[in-house]
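Key result, reporting period 2: structure in, sequence out.
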């Protein structure tokens, strides 16, 4: 995801207000509901606001390919639901909404009715990163997903064309595997899933 920080001066009153009150401002979901529908992705994590503009074609191509291959496996085995951003995940009272690039929730945990957001930790989340989003995905979201007990977190690096898979171990993420080239990505949550890493990148 492409991160835009609040140190810039965007032409929107909401961010002008944020700059004036940054030291004491804690962003809430109530604030989010008043944000403009302007094509940007807004996320609130641990009370901090993060904004990203529309991603480029390489990012979206990789997100599409990941979701396609994961969804094919999930549907074939009737394992649950796979969704892509924009879709809200409410990890906690202070971290909502968060919008992973790709998420998977097991069938037993997915509501039987139509929902506007998923309340709780997905079983697997994927973030496709670029140099500008490295801190957001490797530090901010890494911590948020770990604290929320998301069982598995994939970090997909567009620049190096590598995939890192982290799984929870004693409440902390441990590296399950690092994959590149013709290596086959494997998952602890989706046991039996096999994706050739290089097929995710155009």
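The corresponding designed sequence is given below.
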């Amino acid at each position: 995801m492409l991160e835009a920080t609040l140190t810039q001066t965007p032409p929107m009153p909401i961010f002008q207000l944020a700059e004036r009150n940054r030291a004491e401002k804690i962003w809430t979901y109530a604030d989010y509901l008043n944000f403009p529908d302007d094509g940007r992705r807004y996320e609130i994590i641990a009370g901090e606001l993060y904004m990203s503009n529309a991603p480029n074609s390489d990012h979206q191509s990789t997100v599409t390919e990941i979701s396609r291959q994961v969804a094919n496996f999930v549907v074939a085995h009737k394992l649950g639901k796979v969704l892509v951003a924009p879709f809200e995940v409410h990890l906690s009272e202070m971290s909502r909404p968060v919008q992973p690039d790709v998420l998977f929730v097991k069938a037993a945990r997915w509501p039987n009715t139509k929902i506007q957001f998923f309340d709780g930790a997905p079983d697997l989340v994927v973030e496709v990163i670029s140099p500008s989003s490295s801190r957001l995905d490797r530090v901010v979201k890494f911590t948020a997903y770990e604290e929320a007990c998301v069982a598995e977190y994939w970090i997909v690096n567009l620049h190096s064309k590598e995939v890192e898979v982290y799984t929870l171990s004693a409440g902390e993420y441990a590296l399950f595997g690092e994959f590149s080239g013709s290596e086959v990505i494997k998952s602890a949550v989706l046991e039996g899933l096999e994706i050739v890493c290089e097929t995710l990148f155009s």
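The longest helix spans residues 57-76. Residues 1-21 have pLDDT under 50 and may be disordered. This case is discussed further under Risks and Mitigation.
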